[in-house]
């Protein structure tokens, strides 16, 4: 029975470098054992009596795609990060490429559930339960049930506190002074009466009037304007000779 290895389209170009295609990437469950082939780099047959367990597993992104061995015995034959099945061996079955030990093979398949069921039937192993069935449902913590004994008052009632008599009313002289009856405190004792204070004393003294605000400062004097002086003094025109002669003739 043949089960094809799942290869996503995004990884096909990179896997061709190792000779991995959809035609030569598969797992065959034959009569003599399991035959794994993934391209030109992995081709191995494992007998059924070496299988210890088979179950689905996760394949993190850091593990990578392709032929992914490590020094802890895991050989990854993955063309996808999904539908990965791990086949665990009873003991180490040798080394891959002469360096990497092999006791677990993780392979991505197109039909992982059918592969697990068929391999479990051929090896006589119990088929692992569904992962969703293993998850325990979350339950809320149960609330404590109320006790069956009803809360009834006990036969012994608490002793009542002795009531203290009301404080005596003020006398006639106290009423004239304005005294009031002292109220009783929490412990049953009456407070001492205080003489009433006159209203004139009780009222607070009047507040002093607020000081008047300062008058605004007088505006500053504007600087006196300087008298404009002519740039050049206008010279008077000298009298002509004719005018001088006329003045002399008048004076004579």
Could you provide a short overview of the structure?
The protein has 252 residues and is α+β, with helices and mostly antiparallel strands. The protein has helices at residues 12-15, 112-123, 131-134, 172-177, 199-202, 241-251, and strands at 2-4, 25-29, 34-38, 42-46, 51-57, 66-69, 74-78, 84-89, 95-96, 100-101, 104-108.
Question: What do you see in this structure?
Answer:
By secondary structure, the chain is α+β, with helices and mostly antiparallel strands. It has a domain at 2-128: PH-domain like, CATH 2.30.29. It has 6 helices and 11 strands. It has helices spanning 12-15, 112-123, 131-134, 172-177, 199-202, 241-251, and strands at residues 2-4, 25-29, 34-38, 42-46, 51-57, 66-69, 74-78, 84-89, 95-96, 100-101, 104-108. It is elongated and about 170 Å long. The chain starts with a strand and ends with a helix.
């Amino acid at each position: 029975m043949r089960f094809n290895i799942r290869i996503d389209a995004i990884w096909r170009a990179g896997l061709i470098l190792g000779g991995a295609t959809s035609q030569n990437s598969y797992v065959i469950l034959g009569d003599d054992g399991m035959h794994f082939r993934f391209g030109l780099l992995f081709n191995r047959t494992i007998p059924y009596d070496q299988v210890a367990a088979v179950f689905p597993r996760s394949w993190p992104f850091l593990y990578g795609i392709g032929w992914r061995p490590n020094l802890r015995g895991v050989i990854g034959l993955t063309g996808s990060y999904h539908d990965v099945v791990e086949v665990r061996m009873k003991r180490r079955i040798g080394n891959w490429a002469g360096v990497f030990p092999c006791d677990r093979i993780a392979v991505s398949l197109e039909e992982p559930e059918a592969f697990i069921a068929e391999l479990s039937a051929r090896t006589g192993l119990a088929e692992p339960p569904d992962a969703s069935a293993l998850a325990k449902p979350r339950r809320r913590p149960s609330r404590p049930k109320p006790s069956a004994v009803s809360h009834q008052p006990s036969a012994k009632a608490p002793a009542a506190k002795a009531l203290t008599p009301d404080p005596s009313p003020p006398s006639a002289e106290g009423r004239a002074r304005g005294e009031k009856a002292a109220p009783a405190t929490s412990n049953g004792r009456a407070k001492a009466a205080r003489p009433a204070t006159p209203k004139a004393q009780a009222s607070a003294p009047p507040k002093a009037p607020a000081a008047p605000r300062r008058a605004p400062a007088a505006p500053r004097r504007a600087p006196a304007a300087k008298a404009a002086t002519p740039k050049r003094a206008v010279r008077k025109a000298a009298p002509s000779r004719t005018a001088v002669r006329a003045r002399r003739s008048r004076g004579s």
